[in-house]
Records
---
Amino acid sequence: MAVAAVLIGGVIGLAGVYGIGRLRGNAEPDPACQASVDTARRMTSLARGEVAAVAVAAAPRTLPALTFALTIDRVLNGLCRPFFGWVSDMIGRENTMFIAFAMEALAVWVMLLTRENPALFAVMSGIVFFGWGEIFSLFPSTLTDTFGTKNATTNFGFLYISQGVGSVLGGPAAAWMHDATGSWFPVFWLIIALDSLTAVLALFVLKRARAGFLARQLNT
């Protein structure tokens, strides 16, 4: 397992060095890398306005919308982890997953519809990150609740590998979709659809599957 992790890390590192070299060299930039750069530029231009009413309450002076959004994103992404852990202890893991993923989908949808409003851009991006962080509380606890503590570390290692694979492939996939459609809107609509699908699966598939598995374990 350790050797595989090192090999995967090495391949990702080499790919990153190659991509940076392509961008710095005289050759034509790699489309996926260039698309990522374009994404950052578009988001910066989108949020170039100032969040007066929101930022004044949080700081002595007005902040650019993007700066304020990135700040509250990190704060809320950290706070949501103990919060959703506490909520899931009260109402259950799958019910909490449904709330979190549905909230993400709704926030991305509102952010897309009100993209010209820098204040809502900052607030909605914070809500999106508030929902995203729940996986670090709910996924390990759900895994341990289901399969016990004996192999919890190994099980979570495999689960986290799948998250890493998604992180590596997500950027190029989004860039390909942009190149194929000429717009970033399909990427955001796909995010909304996947968040909504995950919310439904958590409530109506995972919940039933876990209940059935645990019932069979008790009968054996």
Note: The longest helix spans residues 185-219.
---
Amino acid sequence: MPGFRGGRLHQIDVSGTAGRLSLDMDERIRRRRDMMRLMPELPEVEAVRRRLEPAMRGARITRVLLRRKGLRRPFPRAFASRLEGRRIRSVDRRGKYLLIALDSGDTLLMHLGMSGSFRIGRGATRRKSAAAGTRTRHDHVVFTLSNGVVLTFNDPRRFGVMDVLGDGPLASHGVFAAMGPEPLEPSFGGAALARALAGKRVALKVALLDQRIVAGLGNIYASEALHRAGLSPLRRSSTLATTAGRPAPGGVRLAVAIKAVLREAIARKEHPGRAGRFRVYDREGEPCRTPGCRGTVRRISQAGRSTFYCPACQR
């Protein structure tokens, strides 16, 4: 490629640069896919809740240590003082959010973001760890409880969220006002899906990622549930409801499949980055695992997210 230098025309070899740019682009795509795969969904958040509940419920928050001014957004004013001295009444979950109810009527809201996690320790253990230099620069928030438990929130990417919601119904809060039903509640079923999807022309997989349709369902388990139900992610959402608004057979199957894949994932309590347990997710080019199916798993992009499915048995 010609170029000017010092007023003279020189030949510039960019083949190596182009190759590096291509490799850099491939690496960015691979890293983005890895990040999407690691994004916590309902089962991962519920597993965290079940770990935190016995450590937190009934204890009083004696100290809140903030090692930075915020995570994805700044901590609210008086964040630590509104928590310190308060007793924890319950540890709940709504969608992908953790909710810590306090005896003041306030609620500590937490979202793990892409990389957030909690480390549970005891006061003595924490002192030994600090002496050994195991504290990392990504330990951003530390909660010390009256029962001796020390909870450390670690978040390398700082996409997590912590906020304090005032006394009042959580359903009216902006985060939850339009959130759909909890898929593990007894009231969730084919009828609930039919009501939410009736008249919608959007592709079924895209609709399932809308938190107004199903709370907490994300990219991985939407793909898994559709495969188990034998439904194409490209199918029009409205086909899961009859013209009278009742659930079609596919809607009933999908509701059952959603519950099943979420319950199994919670029971395993594994990290979402390990793809070995998935039927179709991250298995592009592999044989379909449905008994009797000879299809091959494909990957397509929907709404900027990877969808994995079997065209042969998902209709």
Note: The longest helix spans residues 15-38.
---
Amino acid sequence: MATKIRFKRIGRRNRPFYRMVVMDSRNRRDGAAIEELGWYNPIDENNSYNLKEDRIIHWLKDGAQVTDAAHKLFKKSGLAHRWHLINQGIDQKQIDKEMEKWSLNRADVEKKRLNKKEVLAAKKEVTEEVKEEVKEEVKEEVKEEVKEEVKEEVKEEVKEEVKEEVKEEVKEEVKEEVKEEVKEEIKKEVKKEVKAKEKKKDKNESK
């Protein structure tokens, strides 16, 4: 019987969770599994998983094919490396030694990856802080520029308002001045007329 080791999804919508199973390769994707070989949680922070390595090795020896997705998890767990060593015909003692080396190397890789993540996170944090500082500085600069622009606009508006007010004040002042001048002129003319009349009267009386 041709068998395949693959993932079988059992999680809710938008919350995937997988069982690793061995199935008859002729069965439907959601068909019954021959055996459960572990699980994998891709939405967990550490992408946690648990594999029954001895049973997986058993099925691999039996000729089971592995899907690409399942093989990726085997590589991550070190099972792919173990299977590679078994295929080379190395004895169990040597395999254990090689796997110990692999674990140490994997731990070192994970440590470097974690450090890189921390550096990137710190860099991102500093970038955000600097961005906020620059934002505040730019805000102040723009504020000053806008303030000057608004000042000029307001100045023009006030200038027009004051112009109108002064115009009215000057108008009243000039009105009063003109009124006085006209008054003086009328006075002079009236005096002239009165004098002329008196002169004429005197002339008539002397005849």
Note: The radius of gyration is 51 Å.
---
Amino acid sequence: MAILISTAGNIGAGKTTLAKWLGNNFNLELNTEVVNDNRYLSDYYSDFNSYAFRLAIHFLSLRASQLLKASASLNGSVIDRSIYEDPEIFVRKFNDEKIIEKRDYDTYFDLWNLIHPHLPKLDILIYLYCPVDVLLKRIKKRGRSYEQSISVDFLNTLQNYYNEWINKFNLCKIIKVDSANLSYTGGEEIEKLKTEITEYIRKYKSDHQ
């Protein structure tokens, strides 16, 4: 059994960057979300109502497969977005804003409740939080065409869901990181994170010998 870590956070919070850093520094297999090959994502951003449910189902399948693959790694793995964010953040938002029908919402959670109890459990969830104005600047800077319509209101709404979710999440160890001030070349925030993960991995290996 090897350690399984996931990053989590709003769009533009720096999940993939941190996941790559974790992979390099702790010799973990990296499992990232391949956004350019997503068959629904660009359509979703241009037409929420038509593609939200299809996107949610696609992500459920993709993230379940990713989690199973990651859990099979002998050295341990890091994933750049947790499977829990879709039902707790995005699908809830779709339902609350009537972007999807109630029957679609119920169907999604029928599948979720069937699948997730049988999936491997995370050992650590690293939650990245960041002011919305910084998120928006990062989104504009990375230049994905389908993300350029994302607004401050959209990010603020997501952030409210994230705040509610992370405050009640209790399925594994949580490490919270201020990604607005995170420097990978050094500094208090990254050194604190490195120390905490190093200690957790040391204990994990000792407990699973």
Note: The chain has one domain: 4-207.
